[in-house]
Protein 1
Amino acid sequence: MVDYMMVSHKQGFDLLYKMNEVDALKTKILASIAGLYDNMTPGNPDIDDLADSMGDVLLYTFLLGKKTGFDYDRIREEACHKIRLLLISDYTDVSDDDLNSLAQYLGA
């Protein structure tokens, strides 16, 4: 009975640790998106900061996916699927050329 309690207690800590990791990654994604907004305001021409924020959004999104049970290929496949859907729809916010080049880059 003592061993069961120890395992259960350890599993509880593992679960809390994973939940904290997920929350930290979600916070980093939100902070990175806020950085995108800050870096895209008029009068803030630092292109390196903008690229850094974009890279952070991608990085933390992939890590969050991994932490919640998805492998990196699955996340890429979902992005490719969304690109294909956008290409066959009448979505006009992004050019087909941009979507096609992204699809090619991702191997869609």
Protein 2
Amino acid sequence: TIKLSVARQDERVVAGVADNGPGIPAAEREKVFQRLYRLDHSRSTSGSGLGLSLVRAIADLHGASITLEDCRPGLAVVVRFPLAMD
């Protein structure tokens, strides 16, 4: 199951994607944003390890932050964008 959410919190727009998959261990969550980093159990599947590093770079360009949070079961990816100023 995948759940999408968008909400306004203070001066930010918060977008989230949550699933009920295996998640990412807390000790690995910052590491998965590094270029070419892959979790040990994912090494048998194809991929380059660039996905989340690209997501963080794009978020940074927009002044946004990205975090990975427990969903139990699963993982939530939360992106916080600043509200546009007129």
